[in-house]
Amino acid sequence: MKLFQQLLLAPAALGLVAPMGAMAAELNMDGVNKYAASSEQVTSITQFSDVKPTDWAYQALSNLIERYGCVAGYPNGTFKGGQAMTRWEAAALLNACLDRVTEITDELRRLMKEFEKELAITKARVDGLEAKVGELQATQFSTTTKLKGQVRFVMGDVYRGDGYANFGQAKALMGAAKLYGQRAYDGSTGGFQDRSTNMIKDNQSQGEAYYYYRAGGDGAIKTGTSYQPAQTFAPQARQLAFSTTWTGFTPEPGGTISGSDKALNSLLVNPKIPGTTIANPLNGGTVGTPYAPNRIRASIYTKDGYKTAFAAPATPTGAVPTTNSGTLEYLRPLTNTALPLTGNELLLEDRYGNTTPLRVQTSNSTSSNYSSSSILLDRKDMQALVALANESRRVKTYTYNGKAGAVTKLANQYDFININDASSRTYTGVTAAGAPDTTIGGKGKGLVVTPGGYVQNSNSYTNVINYLLAEYGSLGEDQRKVGYVQNAATKFVRNLAAYTTNKNYVADKNAFTFSHDAQLNFNTSFTGKDQLNFRIRGNNTYAFAGRAANPAAALAYDGSTTSWPQGAKSNLFIDKLFYRFPVGDYAVAAVGTRLPQDAVLPTRGTYYTKDALLEFFNSSAGVFPSYTGTGVGVALGKLGGKGFGMQGVSFGIAYLANESDAVAPDASNTMTQGWFGADTRFRLPVQLAWQSKNKKWLASANYAYERGNNSMGQVGTELALTPFMYASLNESNQFGFTLAYQWSKDFSITGAYGHASVNARYDNSVLGVKMADAGDSAVMNSWMLALNFKNVFLKGNSAGFAIGGVPSLVSNSSGWNKDGGMPTAIETWYQFQVTDNISITPGVFYISSTTNSDGIGGGDVWGGVIKTQFNF
CA-CA 20 to 30 A from 286: which of 41, 210, 505, 541? Predict the structure, then answer.
């Protein structure tokens, strides 16, 4: 009750005691004198021994004592609230309170007069504020939405030492493989197919060679060696497509071959070689007559090589001429042509000084029905190609005339390549009519492919690389499946995918850069318990992972782990869009088209500062990766409190589909996508978490099933990210555990362990080389330990240090390789809290390298960043 209200009630209080006047004769004057004589004021109601909190007027009496100090008791420390009150007692009590009120009122008047001007100014300001509030309410953006923003300026650099990036040329290789047609060439009906390659040929001729031979070519009835069968079985069509592509021939319009020494009839299918007979019907139904494929639909080759003169005998027994006998492209000058080739003798630049590319090209170059792709070659590619050509010769049986006369080399015996022998020998083959032919040879001017394969290639090559390609291209499918040939072929493909670092845009972007990451969050609540989150983002940071050709080098805020919609990385885009709402007392559900995993699952499982430096540590060694998709999720329970199950336990599960699959399903007649589909890429994470009541301990157990991706590997090695090169082949089961402890208010420690098994969904071949079988498995592990410090040196500043082993492959049963070891990542940083809204965080990191059995890898990664962050 306010003071003036108490004063107004005072007369009423006196009126209530008026009837006591009739009882004056009965007044106990001794008691009144004792009460009135008591000058000892009570300062707390607890001083009355006979007043209890349960008394009905307890609060009123307490207010009089503590606010106004105008209540006195009896000398014996009692109040005697149950005793009748005389008019004298009432007058004494009222007089004491009024004296106190008068003191307060006089003081208020004095203060009001003293601060009269200030009060007037304050009143005017309040009136102004009320007017502005009214205007704001009338024109405000929303009564339900709050806006929060964050801007980061990122300055820094990353450098990788010399080595080989496992997938430095993967993009180029996949482009070439698309032209070849992965599904068509591996012959499977349920195998992996590139998204742009349909079962019907499109306007870019992908896989056209297979369909040409499978369906009967142009359908013309021809005779002799150029006869094209009306139809061939799939295995023969697949074989013919391979044999006419791996020729090293330069394609010309209409599928012809350029150069006077290159002709279609230089390719003959020899039915006398086991497994090569085409009887469906071929050559007019005559089985046993060589068949000449009459069209080249695609070609793997090189051109424009620097020409080096060489001298070789025209016959095996002839002397080396004193003058040059011919020229060979891509042969290094002063090469000893009598020694076996190793690959070190081949030039890495063409005659124009450009890096030598391996070209894959469709043949109809006179129309729009034409496409090509190039793969840059390095030294390991050359070495692997020579090894493949030697293994291809090893698997054949053939007869040649050498220095010692006629020699028959049996299968499984080596006959290592050297320039002199390859150009001077004569081999025994067959003519187009099926008769023996002992004149096949280069006559000291070119290199000739050894017979004994599915295709007899009697062309004389003056390009060393093309000759080596053709040696492998001459083999039949059964020969290519022999273990040592298959191993050499897969190693060649692995080397094509890899590339040297610090060259040709592979890990050579080590300049100091300055970029930004800006975010605007619109958080809307309609009930006070729900949340509609809408975040707009713009990020132009060139991902450190891409710059270093190492996924483990990804920063937590450079966007490298974000699935950028339609590739619009440097533009404004919707980064998050989801609605979260309570379900009952202990559950929260979420749904959205841009729903992040951490908006559904109970916890990140760590006390380490979020977005500190490397995404590897931000994601707890890949256990809790940054993943955003289109989907739904639910979390049960409350960490550290009562709720679902046991005290402090929470459980979460979500289904998050790839956004592009969910909104724009693939139109291919062999792919089924959409939000739910047989080929939809998605992640299904599950988490069980616990936090102690005092918030010191935090633990989580995590599992995720993921198709078409491997999010744990996105902070690991290149092989961990895509064990089979194609992410669409991935089908992974990911496990992880985290444990964090808040040692004190200024120090915490977090540990994590991750494990994943990735399986290949389909068979897959690259340029006709089988690289994966459905069910092939790759296994990876990771770990980390992170320390977080607060109030370091100055209050508000923080620091961190973390070390861990990045996700890396310990096994891989496919044609791709495993990592040679587990690289170690280390980071440390210090955050200056300039103001409540501005911080500056310098940090440095290091990632060690590993080299696998192919010699691919190497090149430690160093990096440093200065991050300036504004929160508003």
Answer: 210
Q: Which run of H or of E encompasses 655?
A: strand 649-657
Of residues 592, 735, 712, the one with CA closest to residue 654: 592
Distance CA 211, CA 198 (A): 12
Is residue 667 within 8 A of residue 195, CB to CB? The reply is: no
pLDDT tops 70 at residue 258:
no
Query: Is the pLDDT score of 355 beyond 70?
Result: yes
Which residue in 839, 146, 142 sits closest to 521, CA to CA?
Answer: 146
Q: What span, in angstroms and rounded, lies between the C-alpha atoms of 30 and 34?
A: 6
Residue 439, both tokens: 């004149």
What is residue 165's three-state secondary structure? Answer: strand
- Report pTM: 0.79
Reported as type and span, the H/E element at residue 685 is strand 682-691
Q: What are residue 418's phi and psi, to 5 degrees? A: -135, 155
Q: 13, 6, 4: which is closest to 90 by C-alpha? A: 13
Q: How does pLDDT run across 781-818, given as a tens digit for each residue? A: 999 999 999 999 999 999 999 999 999 999 999 999 99
* More confident site: 704 or 177: 704
Total length of the chain: 872
CB 519 within 8 A of CB 574: no
Q: How far, in Å, CA of 42 to CA of 40, rounded?
A: 7
Task: Name the residue type at position 625.
Answer: P
Q: Which residues contact 664 (CB under 8 A, 6 or more apart)?
A: none
Bridge partners of 770, per DSSP, are: 765
Are 516 and 151 a contacting pair, CB within 8 Å? yes
Q: Which amino acid is at 535?
A: R
Q: What ranges in 527-573 are assigned the alpha helix state H?
A: 544-548
* Residue where the block lists tokens 């958080």: 523
Q: Which amino acid is at 578?
A: F
Q: Which of 75-79, 109-113, 569-573, 734-738 has the highest mean pLDDT?
A: 734-738
Q: Are residues 243 and 250 in contact, defined by beta-carbon separation less than 8 angstroms?
A: no
- What is the arithmetic mean of pLDDT over 538-563? 82
192 vs 584: CA distance, rounded Å: 45
Residues 6+ apart with CB under 8 A from 271: 277, 278, 287, 288, 289, 290, 291
d(CA 660, CA 666): 9
pLDDT at 640: 60
Task: Collect all residues with Cβ–Cβ distance below 8 Å to 125 and sequence separation of at least 6.
Answer: none
| pLDDT given for residue 323 in this prediction | 82
pLDDT tens digits, one per residue of 469-520 = 999 999 988 899 999 999 999 999 999 999 999 988 888 878 899 999 999 9
- The interaxial angle of helices 234-245 and 208-215, nearest 10 deg, is 130
CA 602 to mean position of chain CA atoms? 22
Amino acid sitting at position 677: G
CA distance 693 to 643: 12
